Amino acid sequence: MRRAFLFLIAAIFGGASCIAQTGSAPIVIKFSHVAAPQAHKSKGAERFKALAEQYTNGRVRIELFPNSQLYKDKEELEALQLGAVEMLAPSLSKFGPLGIKAFEVFDIPYLFRNTAELARITEGPIGAEILQQLEAKGIVGLGYWNNGFKSLSANTPLRQPDDLLGLKVRIQSSRVIEEQMTALGALPQVLAFSEAYQALSSGVVDGTENPPSNFYNQKMFEVQRHATLTNHGFLGYALIVNRDFWKRLPLDIRQAIERAVREATPFANAEAEKENNEALAAMIKSGKTAFHEPNAEELAAWEAALLPVRARMADRIGVDLLRRIEAELARPKS
Ligand code: LMR
Prior knowledge:
The protein is α/β, with parallel strands linked by helices. It has helices at 2-14, 40-55, 73-82, 115-122, 125-132, 175-183, 193-202, 212-217, 243-247, 251-286, 296-306, 308-317, 319-328, and strands at residues 27-32, 60-65, 87-88, 139-149, 151-154, 168-171, 187-190, 207-210, 226-228, 234-242, 290-292. The strands form two sheets. It has a six-stranded mixed β-sheet with strand order 7-6-8-5-9-11, with helices on both faces. A five-stranded mixed β-sheet has the order 2-1-3-10-4, sandwiched between helices. (2S)-2-hydroxybutanedioic acid binds at residues 34-35, 91, 147, 172, 193, 210, 214, 235. (2S)-2-hydroxybutanedioic acid (LMR) is lined by residues 34-35, 91, 147, 172, 193, 210, 214, 235.
């Protein structure tokens, strides 16, 4: 219904093919996301906004809506598809329910060791091919942003994989993360990011996983007594826009926006790294969560417990995609 209405408006004002600017009024891009206003994702979005508005000489105005103030995780993707917002930066772990399973390759535990390895995929042809898959769902992918590597938390110490047995853990909507938690004997529960703190503080769930930046910004460290720096999985984002809106933008505007994304990306990634380091230091200083750094033997136990996830999820993600990434990173085949 809403989509039909948008098409009608586009046909009337845009000659059906191009979004027209009425007088000097700028084209508005509503950019919604779930991260806190002070989070690196917000800082990256602000840098993108400044660059996009500069490179289009004000013909585009970017309106930022952080902190799930417009939509929560699942709703924001639906809103984008319907054209209620034009741009998002969801976590790569949230595309499975849309039917795009390839993004879940980024959730495979211990497949990526550092952000340099990730960049080899996200900035290369494989990353572009994965983004391309979004088109069939009415979405265009413009790029990837990093958050960082995740740790596990609970109210009881997590020294070894068995320590998660029977714990209820909040996860994002990724089948790979679900399998990862099941492999540890935990009971995964998908909850929106905006609901995680409440679920942890009320005991609806016992634990969760996230990089330090999110633990800190969402105050999860105030309601989790223990965390282990397992760095078992990556959290990153895709910068995405509504396909029909995008295709109707004049070419020079699209090019300017692409340039703004390209140039904001190294800034957003550097902010992410800085924020993760600072957030961890601040949480350790607060003394509210005891952070455990696993030794080599403990790390080997986490890796061994999580290795089977890769083979179990290969069919879902795509065996070919997994093999190409393993080859690119010189990892032994699963
Ligand atoms: C989460 O839901 O845990 C994260 O994806 C939130 C985010 O956008 O960093």
